[in-house]
Amino acid sequence: MNKFAELGLSKPIVDILDEAGFVEPTPVQNAAIELILNGKDVLASAQTGSGKTAAFALPIIEKLAKPGDKPRALVLVPTRELALQVTTQFKLFGRNKKLKVVTLYGGVGFDAQLRALRGKIDVIVATPGRLNDCLERRCADLRNVEITVLDEADRLMDLGFMPQVRRIIDRVPADAQTVMFSATIDQRVTRIANEFATDPVIVKINPERVDSSSIDQKFMHVHEFKKDALLIELLSEFNADSVLVFTRTKRKAGWVKDRLRDASVVAEEIHGDLSQSQRERTLKKYRAGEVAVLVATDVAARGLDIPAISHVVNYDLPDSPSDYVHRIGRTGRAGRSGTAVSFISDEQRHLVRDIEKIVGRQLDPSLKAGAGGAKMAVGAGRPGARPGGRRFGGRGRRR
Ligand code: AMP
Predict the structure, then answer these.
(1) Does the Cβ of 57 fall within 6 Å of ligand 1?
(2) What's the CA-to-centroid distance between 51 and ligand 1, angstroms?
(3) Amino acid 361: pLDDT
(4) pLDDT tens across 331-384, in order?
(5) Residues 231, 245: contact at Cβ < 8 Å?
């Protein structure tokens, strides 16, 4: 059974997740979806990038079932950007149900938002200031709200927002379900959460460990056209049972997998273009150790928890440092050590600086010397290098 279906989500939603390439629920989704479906008030710790939006959007969409007239779900967010992101996810996941989402935020004229409020609405996603203004103008009706979400609750609980948030919550029926997602859960957050919710279930998810002490991180400067050879050489050096290779695009994932197979490496690809059953089959083989190298895109590998993964290779660097952290966090799990190797081209040097900032230490010594400095160019792959490792060649097995 599909892992999302096991959490209680029905086919129309599971189908969309499948299309979007979501393979496994992230930890916060695993912990929160069922609780929310069961009507519990929840206070969950979750950082941006943890999949928290889907953790509340999916059960809400499941609960709303059919489109209605008046808003039945309210999501409060601290910023306009977050309001737009949350709306995008609601629209994506709610596509099959045709739910109507209205987004309210400040800094723009009222007209379009007021017009939207006059129509049928299922979900309001709003920043507190603008929603308050709409309430004062008597243009928004929260009397039918069944579930309220405070996203980035710790920020919403900042002094500046609190009076507005309180006024809004006062307009929501007292028996509505309340769920809160917060980057931190400290005494203050817990105290205010108890004011808004009834006995909330507290879900603490340990943030993805960025603790680099268990992950040996290396950068390698390499020309684009030499990446395949370098990868094959490295795999032979690692001689590992479970390696995860990241590419930027689905096509590249297929390409790299083919090059690895040409070199007799037992490799598979995983990305959003494959069907759910294909992805599940591939993951099963990978988990069982039948596939040595999995070539993946970011979406497909999010949430993967396979302790045996000993090496992550960033064949292409991701665009954002947080994706880098997610990627390398697939190794060094369950108390084991891991190795992450990232290929970089000259144009991508600036990304390395951003990554170093988030990881909190210098990872690429060559950057210290500045633009003209010595490169740590590590063997860009000897032409014709053949892997000789146990799982990489040797047996001459092609798949
Ligand atoms: P968020 O933490 O809600 O900002 O989500 C971060 C990103 O992860 C979004 O782009 C989501 O589309 C994506 N995402 C969330 N859950 C999953 C999942 N289970 N599998 C793959 N991607 C996911």
Answers:
(1) no
(2) 4
(3) 76
(4) 887 678 899 999 998 777 788 888 887 777 778 766 554 333 333 333 333 333
(5) yes
Q: Is the CB of 302 under 6 A from ligand 1?
A: yes
Domain with residue 160: its CATH number is 3.40.50.300
Look at ligand 1, atom 11, and give the residue with the nearest C-alpha: 51
The number of residues making up the chain comes to: 399
Looking at the fold, whether 128 and 249 belong to one and the same domain comes out as no
Residues 166, 128 share a domain? yes
Residue 392 inside a domain? The answer is: no
CB-ligand 1 contact for 50 (6 Å cutoff): yes
Residue ID of nearest Cα to ligand 1 atom 15: 51
User: In degrees rounded to 5, what are phi and psi of residue 294?
Assistant: -110, 125
* Enclosing domain of residue 256: 215-378
Write the DSSP symbol of residue 303.
Answer: T
Asked whether residue 233 falls in the same domain as residue 363, the answer is yes
The per-residue pLDDT for range 110-150, each reduced to its tens digit, is: 999 999 999 999 999 999 999 999 999 999 999 999 999 99
> What's the gap in Å between 64 CA and the centre of ligand 1?
21
Q: Over the stretch 242-263, which tens digit does the pLDDT of each residue have?
A: 999 999 999 999 999 999 999 9
CB neighbours (10 Å) of residue 375? 12
Residue 229 and residue 98 share a domain: no
- Return the closest-CA partner of residue 144 out of 75, 69, 94: 69
d(CA 81, CA 66): 27
Do 241 and 313 lie in one domain? The reply is yes
Minimum-distance ligand 1 atom for the alpha carbon of 49: 2
∠ Cα 59 65 70 (to 5°): 100
The rounded distance, in Å, linking the Cα atoms of 369 and 119 is 60
Q: Is residue 391 a part of any domain in this protein?
A: no
Q: Which of 143, 97, 94, 148 is nearest to 126 (CA)?
A: 148
The two structure tokens encoding residue 217: 């991180």
Is 348:324 a contact under the CB 8 Å cutoff?
A: no
The pLDDT of residue 355: 85
Whose CA is closest to atom 8 on ligand 1? 51
- Whether 49 is in the pocket of ligand 1, judged by its Cβ within 6 Å, is yes
Q: Which of 16, 22, 81, 88 to mutate to test the pocket of ligand 1 (most atoms within 8 A of CB)?
A: 22
Whether the CB of 303 sits within 6 Å of ligand 1: yes
* Average confidence (pLDDT) over 16-24: 86
